[in-house]
Design brief:
Layout lengths: L1 H29 L4 H36 L7 H33 L3 H37 L1
Length: 151
């Protein structure tokens, strides 16, 4: 289970850490660029980052399922089940980002429709912000759940 936990944490670090970096560091720095450069930068950044998100999601779901089964499946501690539910919500939000907003961003950048690209990027920013908060809540449950569960 220790190796599964390590892979799980590695996936979380890549995904949540990458979102945090993009939101808190890259976004303010990129805001100084003109729309064509800024929006192209974001499309290319997401293209590279989303490959790692897909890998992370695979690791997180596989190891999370494994660890939940080891902890008793539906009888696992409430904090572990809460982490699973939040994780699934995060994945669904990512699916919307990837299959809808990111596709709109790419099409708009290719067509040089900067206003439409900016609108798509704005939606991605909001959804990534939500996923960062959910990720932080999940990390809190992972690190404090046992303590809170045992009182």
């Amino acid at each position: 289970m220790d190796f599964a936990r390590w892979l799980h944490v590695l996936g979380v670090v890549v995904w949540v850490g990458g979102m945090f970096f993009a939101y808190m560091a890259l976004r303010p720095a990129a805001a100084q660029l003109e729309p064509p450069q800024r929006l192209t930068l974001w499309r290319e950044t997401f293209r590279r980052f989303f490959l790692w998100v897909w890998i992370s999601i695979g690791l997180i779901l596989a190891t999370g399922l494994h660890m939940t089964v080891v902890m008793g499946g539906w009888h696992a501690p409430v904090y572990a089940l809460a982490m699973a539910v939040i994780g699934i919500v995060m994945v669904l939000i990512f699916f919307h980002v990837f299959f809808a907003a990111y596709k709109r961003l790419g099409r708009a950048v290719d067509a040089k429709e900067w206003q439409a690209a900016g609108k798509a990027l704005g939606q991605i920013r909001q959804l990534v912000g939500i996923n960062i908060v959910l990720g932080i809540i999940t990390i809190t449950l992972a690190t404090a759940g046992r303590v809170l569960a045992t009182g």
